[in-house]
User: What shape does this take?
Amino acid sequence: MPSRAGFLALAPHRSTTAALLADAARRRSMEVTVLPVGTVPDRYRERGDGHYYGGPRFAARVARQLGVALLEPDDGWLDALPYAFTGRRVRRVPLSEARRLPGPLFAKPPTDKSFPAAVYGSGAELPPAAGDPLVQVSPV
Assistant: This one.
């Protein structure tokens, strides 16, 4: 029998974030399921009370079957957060500007995975990218 609180569907890939979300969902009396790689089991299809957590590629294959809409944050959500929440100053700058920054610095693309989110010795160490995309940077 489906839970009145709905269910949380997790991608097969394990992560500490998924485990934390699963624990929180169970505390709210939600059913938690780890989806199989192949397809969404019938009992979870288009129920209307589902939530999904996992990677975007797996989500693209299962979202419609689950009956969930995928949400993506605005590119500037992280740099818009107050310092009180992040404990650091995050800003978005063109990659060409980021390459001139002294280090060490944390840098990441806002949404895509065009280069690894990581701490770099300086902006000069940032990997090559097509064009001059905006990147999020923060001193370390």
Summary: The CA atoms of residues 39 and 61 lie 8 Å apart. Helices lie at 16-27, 56-66, 77-80, 83-86, 95-98. The mean pLDDT is 90. The beta strands are 7-10, 31-34, 50-53, 91-94, 105-108, 118-120, 134-139.
